[in-house]
Amino acid sequence: xxxxxxxxxxxxxxxxxxxxxxxxxxxxxxxxxxxxxxxxxxxxxxxxxxxxxxxxxxxxxxxxxxxxxxxxxxxxxxxxxxxxxxxxxxxxxxxxxxxxxxxxxxxxxxxxxxxxxxxxxxxxxxxxxxxxxxxxxxxxxxxxxxxxxxxxxxxxxxxxxxxxxxxxxxxxxxxxxxxxxxxxxxxxxxxxxxxxxxxxxxxxxxxxxxxxxxxxxxxxxxxxxxxxxxxxxxxxxxxxxxxxxxxxxxxxxxxxxxxxxxxxxxxxxxxxxxxxxxxxxxxxxxxxxx
Length: 290
What we know:
With 290 residues, this protein is an alpha/beta fold. 50% of the residues lie in helices and 15% in strands.
């Protein structure tokens, strides 16, 4: 897990604290909105961490909620940190819409559950594989934009695939190993890289074989579930589903639990870690000699 503080997570923590204090004070969201000359939907976005809270608005809310000095100081610090820029903002032009939110959450996640059915996840891609993937787009990026998107993936890898990184629980459908993205040579190197990463301490990688047959993820495709500690005993879990024009963030407990249930079901049908490594190595050798 990155030691850098994520402004995305700070906004979440600030919002949770503001909602807790509002409820404690007996104030409604409409009363809070009237007090700071905002709409109730604007206050809702503050409390769900979707937007930063200005110093002026924060001070007015703290007055309304009768915050004690210790609470005021803690929330002022959170509000300041929430307005800072994360490391990923340097790659703004290289990101899909909304992906900055994901990177902010990913930066402080302690566990990720990842399922992919078609491609190697970005965290495990080699540069050649990434470039081949992007070249297959209807309007492929080129030049500086292409280099920026490759650099963004490499930056994520450096931050997350370390002994101090989050626990990465990964299930890949066997089809992922056979899609010759970039051709056999590039794919062979990619699979050998994947095999090497599968032995690192934060990574638990399993392959869901063709022989597993029908499974519930056929209805949803790839997804990631993140678990993010927000302080104390509070944990924020969210399911992330990416599509061509953006992404879905599902944080209702029932939605997150459903994706965790699917992942657990896939885990029981997947090969174990050693069997998965052996299959990856076998397919990599086949790619090399073709």
